[in-house]
Design brief:
Blueprint lengths: L4 E7 L6 H6 L8 E7 L6 H7 L3 E4 L5 H11 L4 E4 L11 H10 L4 E5 L11 H18 L11 E4 L2 H4 L9 H11 L4 E5 L13 H16 L10
Parallel strand pairs: 1-2, 1-4, 2-3, 5-7
Antiparallel strand pairs: 4-6, 5-6
Helix pairs in contact: 5-8
The structure holds guanosine-5'-triphosphate and magnesium ion.
Guanosine-5'-triphosphate (GTP) binds next to strand 1, strand 2 and helix 3.
Length: 230
């Protein structure tokens, strides 16, 4: 029988933290599967993930968004939870959020790391970049959220049928929020804890920050590629 919940985690060279990330998923979540979508990491990420019982999919095509899309399409659960493989997100909050979907009749939850942020957990440059990107996300799309860059989402898989995702890179994170909040689905943002990263970052602060900003303007202008293929 299919599990109720699928946890999708993209990974690239996360051998230092994937074990701890998987250990942080609470058993009380009940009936769930974990899907690691690994970008062919040369380190021990896949080996560690498999040893902890995760289902590992190798996605050699580059990009954070590409990995997420592959994992989401492969998910067997009706509910999808996401986070990074770097021990930054509070997996212990998943059970409460899964319950909230039913209790409050919600379809999509995105997590806001900034309201409760411990300043040591996020670099100053990332906080400034996030502020600018979230400002333009609100201004251009009227999406009233505080953290446009968070990678922790809990949502009904059916939402994927009502949104159009186009970007294979880091802009996937802002695009899924814009799409969900602009759709007919009920979307909300919830504040969560955020912890300092374990292991080396896979993003380039300036490169990805600029790409994410340009993406917002291109999306607003309707100048994007077609929907992501499977
Ligand atoms: N499969 C795959 N995973 C990726 C790729 N790029 C990043 N990731 C993973 O996606 C997650 C997000 O990347 P991070 O480097 O943590 O990016 P970030 O959270 O914006 O930056 P930090 O604040 O430094 O953690 C991590 O688990 C990465 O290992 C990729 O091209 N392919
Ligand atoms: Mg991260």
């Amino acid at each position: 029988m299919a599990p109720k919940v699928s946890i999708v985690i993209p990974t690239l060279n996360e051998e230092k933290s994937i074990g701890g990330t998987l250990d942080s998923i609470p058993e009380e979540l009940g009936d769930y599967e974990v899907i690691i979508v690994d970008g062919n990491s040369p380190d021990r990420t896949r080996e560690i993930a498999e040893s902890k019982g995760a289902r590992v999919i190798v996605e050699p095509r580059k990009g954070y968004g590409r990995a997420h899309w592959t994992g989401m399409l492969a998910a067997k659960g009706d509910i999808i939870c996401t986070m990074d493989g770097d021990m930054t997100y509070p997996a212990h909050r998943f059970p409460e959020m899964v319950e909230l979907l039913d209790e409050k009749d919600i379809d999509f939850i995105t997590c806001d790391r900034l309201t409760m942020l411990d300043k040591n957990a996020m670099r100053v440059l990332h906080r400034i970049g996030n502020f600018i990107l979230t400002f333009f996300t609100r201004l251009l799309f009227g999406v009233k959220i505080w953290d446009s860059q968070s990678g922790m989402w809990v949502f009904r898989k059916e939402v994927l049928e009502g949104i159009t995702m186009t970007d294979v890179g880091m802009p996937f994170s802002e695009e899924i929020k814009i799409e969900a909040f602009q759709s007919t689905y009920r979307a909300v943002e919830i504040p969560v804890e955020y912890y300092a990263r374990v292991g080396d970052p896979q993003i380039s602060t300036w490169g990805d920050g600029t790409k994410n900003l340009k993406f917002l303007f291109r999306k607003k202008a309707g100048k994007l590629g077609g929907p992501l293929p499977p």
